[in-house]
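Side project, low priority. Logging it here so it doesn't get lost.
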Amino acid sequence: MPIVPTDVPMTPSLCIRTIDAITSRYPFCRSELLTRTAYARPIRTLVIGNGPRKVLYSASHHANEWITTPVLLKFVEEFAKAIESGGQIGSISAEELRNTATIYTVPMVDPDGVALVTGEIATGDPQYVSAQAIAAPFPSIPFPDGWKANLLGVDLNLNYPAGWLQARENKFAQGFTRPAPRDFVGRAPLDQFETRALAGYTEAIDPALVLAYHTQGKVIYWQFQDYEVPGARELGERFAAVSGYSLEETPFLSAFAGYKDWFIKYFRRPGYTIEVGEGENPLPLSQFDQIYRDNLGILITAAMG
């Protein structure tokens, strides 16, 4: 029986239980506490493989994009199962992939926000009430389904030092000048526990590549400003070919202060935002199986290089 549930909302507590179950069932998978949020929720890593090529995959930077978390968890579980059985993951030998790459994942970057959107925080709970107060000045954003930020009202994927001032200018012009359900960039780059921890983890790993999973649009974003990263477009084209997604340049209003932007700027290596699925966030779980099928080739190709 599979460990990763794909038919119920992936709450933060369920994510932690799932990681624990995977590492218990497959001892060659490992996990560590990356940090705790402002509300003390743990952010955990999940790592598989022992090869020299290091890659880092993250999901759920945005609260209402939590369907990306089970994508990474299921990938690690299926990879581990294939290693144990001497089988394949996708069309490649699991043992070959294991010996080629070490895959570091942060399956849920924003557990506080995910807890709100998935209903793990009960109506009337002080955290829910606090979020309601942040959301009140933004009545056009559905509550809680439209919530992308952490529970301090900071959009984590606008909190990295890569064109942060431009992101602030763009979002202030749209009215997001204070904590909000989405699009508030914070008071300064990396001023949140979540982003500071992920940036530090990335620096410690020094990966060859990062994938940042988001929803929606079936789009792959691959560049940041005019930074030239050798091979980045070509690898992005391979991702597009195996997924059926389109490879596109990031729209200007979304083109700054994201995690992959920061990675490209400071590491000068390939970084990609993968926008999975189609429709309105949060995407329904009825899309999960198709999302996973679309992205399995990306996850394997990124690890193989």
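Brief comment: The chain is about 40% helix and 15% strand.
Revisit when time allows.
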